[in-house]
């Protein structure tokens, strides 16, 4: 944890002098304390459901005595969204592109944690089989016959 300036607390301190058994007010000062403890840094970033244009980022929850109200999601050091959950679906990405994600936690006093360690993700290419769940992509209006696949008892694949 680290100390971050965020919340102001005012404390009055009164100085009293004793002069011949009588208390006398000498001065009254206000002291401003501006430090508060931030939430823990989100950990264990990972991704799933990766396609050519989207990815779901997940992480373990942060801790804070006041409670966490949101997580801020940064892609390539730019704030791209927030989530009340420990996951975020980032969409409208470019195919075959590397992105770097970092997450921070925000508590009920709007104090933000440090950003997490970076998670690098490369989106699939536009024709990657994983992107299309094993189905070939073709431009609109075109069709391609790939043939039939036959599997024998030895798990040998043969194309007709």
Helix content: under 10%
Number of strands: 11
Largest sheet: 4 strands, antiparallel
How far apart are the first and last residues' alpha carbons, in Å? 63 Å
CATH architecture group name of the largest domain: Sandwich
- The CATH class of the largest domain: Mainly Beta
Considering the protein shown, what is the CATH homologous superfamily of the largest domain?
Immunoglobulins
- What proportion of the residues form beta strands (DSSP E)? over 45%
Number of domains: 2
Strand order of the largest sheet: 6-5-8-9
Which tags fit this structure?
disordered C terminus, single chain, 3-stranded antiparallel β-sheet, 2 domains, 160 residues, 4-stranded antiparallel β-sheet, mainly beta, Immunoglobulin-like, 11 strands, 52% strand, rod-shaped
Task: Give a structural overview.
- The chain has two domains: 35 residues, no CATH class; 80 residues, Sandwich (Immunoglobulin-like).
- It is built from no helices and eleven strands.
- The termini are far apart.
- Strands 6-5-8-9 form a four-stranded antiparallel sheet, with no helix packed on it. Strands 3-4-7 form a three-stranded antiparallel sheet, with no helix packed on it.
- A hairpin with a 6-residue loop joins strand 3 and strand 4.
- 0% of the residues lie in helices and 52% in strands.
- With 160 residues, it is an all-beta fold.
């Amino acid at each position: 944890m680290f100390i971050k300036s965020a919340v102001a607390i005012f404390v009055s301190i009164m100085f009293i002098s004793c002069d011949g058994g009588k208390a006398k007010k000498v001065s009254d000062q206000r002291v401003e304390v501006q430090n508060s403890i931030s939430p823990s840094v989100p950990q264990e970033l990972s991704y799933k459901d990766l396609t050519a244009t989207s990815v779901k980022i997940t992480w373990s929850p942060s801790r804070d005595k006041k409670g966490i109200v949101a997580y801020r999601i940064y892609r390539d050091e730019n704030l791209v969204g927030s989530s009340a959950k420990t996951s975020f679906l980032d969409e409208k990405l470019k195919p075959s592109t590397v992105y770097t994600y970092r997450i921070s936690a925000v508590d009920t006093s709007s104090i933000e944690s440090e950003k997490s360690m970076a998670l690098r993700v490369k989106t699939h290419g536009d024709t990657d089989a994983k992107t299309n769940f094993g189905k070939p992509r073709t431009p609109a209006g075109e069709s391609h016959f790939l043939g039939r696949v036959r599997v024998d008892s030895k798990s040998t694949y043969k194309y007709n």
